[in-house]
Design a protein that fits this description.
GO terms for molecular function: threonine synthase activity. Keywords: Amino-acid biosynthesis, Lyase, Pyridoxal phosphate. It catalyses: O-phospho-L-homoserine + H2O = L-threonine + phosphate. By secondary structure, the protein is α/β, with parallel strands linked by helices. It has two domains: 85-108 and 224-421, 3-Layer(aba) Sandwich (Rossmann fold), CATH 3.40.50; 132-220 and 433-463, 3-Layer(aba) Sandwich (Rossmann fold), CATH 3.40.50.1100. The chain is 43% helix and 16% strand. The protein has helices at 15-21, 40-44, 51-63, 69-80, 112-127, 143-152, 171-178, 194-206, 208-213, 224-240, 258-268, 285-292, 316-323, 328-341, 348-355, 365-377, 384-394, 414-421, 448-456; strands at residues 3-5, 30-32, 91-93, 98-102, 134-139, 158-165, 185-191, 215-218, 248-253, 273-280, 294-296, 343-345, 358-362, 402-406, 442-445. Bound molecules: pyridoxal-5'-phosphate.
């Protein structure tokens, strides 16, 4: 298995190098050269498998020669052994048609753990024996940061610098990052938005002088290995609801388009999916793009679902590449146009290609709260992100079962949940001293100079 860049200029890489690199050197994102194919028989044979065994089946074709099956199994067993539920990602029934896929049983209570616990172990495995330390830089709208920090804290040969928009993540989210005091963990509060932070991370990779001094890597969902790990739970859930005999739909609370792109990958690999429902909040660039072809960024409106408060959705480029004929040169030009004007039109091929898989919806604050109350009536306390997915699921025009991805534990967003439902969810016992722990982080202006200066003073340069 080899990986190619969406912008067509970077070298083809194997799995190990793609994992360590994150972003491609031409500014594009890596995608597999071809999608592995699973037949109906292959899918039927997953019916009785554990999560870890499902993960091995689904991911083995992607890792090529860089991991043996036994090594992959060992890493999955270790990563998913840290989850607080024996099913790892259990399904919960809401009514005759709606289900929740609970992705929040990992150490930091958000679905990001599913991918990042594995990614942390992959970094360690691939860096064994290497003398060059890895400098991970990332931007987070909340959940990526804590999940990435948990996955690499204290690991040898890795430093992590995590940028979050100051004052725009929940207090639980901030404390989950800033109370990790391991010396290789560096939290930076940026005086700006998530998009500012994400743009700065991209600029660091593209700045030859800066990126040449360090072995930079990314943990944002621009890293292919993260998306790969997320494909697994689409198979795991669909098989439990009757795949390959029945088609299910998935409603996905979407920000950076990583999670739902993994669902698209599952569909391309042969999983029968009726529809992938892209649910956005009022920051609705993806809904506009998929419904009208207008991909134009406005300004970010802060909402109760901060992990979806973005206007530029990095992984959307992967979809545009795959459904638009895999023309790297054309896409590079389209993306350069977007980077200058913050607006572009999808081509007809992109729009019709996406329409074969996706539906989309925009959910406002009132509909979000209503979905939280509806779930509470069935005894399920859900977080604001999940509620946006569920609101879209309930009004989607589909015929089969619908699985809403429950992307965070309700207690991560206790204030918003209390406002909607009248009762405050409690943190699981493993986090109940979070508010007593010491915090450590730097606050910096949202300028490239300030942030790169800070990192350069603390990261280990190439040997
Ligand atoms: C990250 C996140 C999302 C958005 O996922 P993307 O892969 O960026 O689309 C949704 N909900 C929660 C709770 C998240 O942490």
């Amino acid at each position: 298995m080899r990986y190619q860049s969406t912008r067509g200029q970077a070298p083809l890489l194997g799995f190990r190098d793609v994992t360590l690199a994150g972003l491609a050197s031409d500014g594009g994102l890596y995608v597999p050269e071809a999608w592995p194919q699973f037949s109906a028989d292959d899918i039927a044979a997953m019916a009785d498998l554990s999560y870890v065994e499902t993960a091995v089946r689904v991911m083995l074709p992607f890792v090529g020669e860089d991991l043996s099956e036994a090594e992959l199994r060992e890493l999955c067993a270790q990563a998913y052994g840290r989850f607080a539920h024996a099913a790892v990602t259990p399904l919960t029934q809401l009514d005759h048609r709606n289900w929740l896929l609970e992705l929040f049983h990992g150490p930091t209570l958000a679905f990001k753990d599913v991918a990042l616990q594995l990614l942390g172990l992959l970094f360690e495995k691939f860096l064994t024996g290497s003398t060059t330390p890895l400098t991970i830089v990332g931007a987070t709208s909340g959940d990526t940061g804590s999940a990435a920090i948990d996955a690499v804290a204290g690991r040898h040969g890795v430093d992590i610098f995590m940028l979050h928009p100051k004052g725009r993540v929940s207090e639980v989210q901030r404390r989950q990052m800033t109370t990790v005091l391991a010396p290789n963990v560096h939290n930076i509060a940026i005086e700006g938005s998530f998009d500012d932070a994400q743009a700065m991370v991209k600029a660091m990779f593209n700045d030859a002088a800066f990126s040449g001094r360090f072995q930079l890597s990314a943990v944002n969902s621009i890293n292919w290995a993260r998306l790969m790990a997320q494909i697994v739970y689409y198979f795991y859930a669909a098989v439990r609801l009757g795949a390959p005999g029945r088609k299910v739909s998935f409603a996905v609370p979407t920000g950076n388009f990583g999670d739902v792109f993994a669902g698209y990958a599952a569909a391309r690999m042969g999983l029968p999916v009726e529809r992938l429902i892209v649910a956005t909040n009022v920051n609705d660039i993806l809904h506009r793009a998929l419904s009208t072809g207008d991909y134009s960024a406005g300004t970010v409106t802060p909402t109760a679902a901060p992990s979806m408060d973005i206007q530029v959705s990095s992984n959307f480029e992967r979809l545009l590449f795959d459904v638009g004929g895999r023309d790297g040169a054309a896409l590079a030009e389209q993306m350069r146009g977007f980077e200058t004007s913050k607006a572009m039109r999808l081509t007809n091929a992109q729009l019709t290609g996406a329409a074969r898989y996706f539906a989309s919806d925009r959910v406002d604050a009132a509909d979000m709260s209503q979905a939280m109350r509806w779930a509470a009536d069935s005894g399920e306390v859900i977080d604001p992100h999940t509620a946006i997915g569920l609101a879209a699921a309930r009004r989607a025009d589909v015929t089969g079962q619908v699985v809403t991805l429950a992307t965070a534990h309700a207690a991560k967003f206790g204030t918003a949940v209390e406002r909607a439902t009248g009762s405050r969810p409690i943190l699981p016992p493993r986090l109940d001293d979070l508010f007593d722990r010491e915090e450590r982080y730097a606050t910096l202006p949202a300028t490239f100079e300030a942030v790169t200066g800070y990192i350069a003073g603390r990261a280990q340069p190439k040997g």
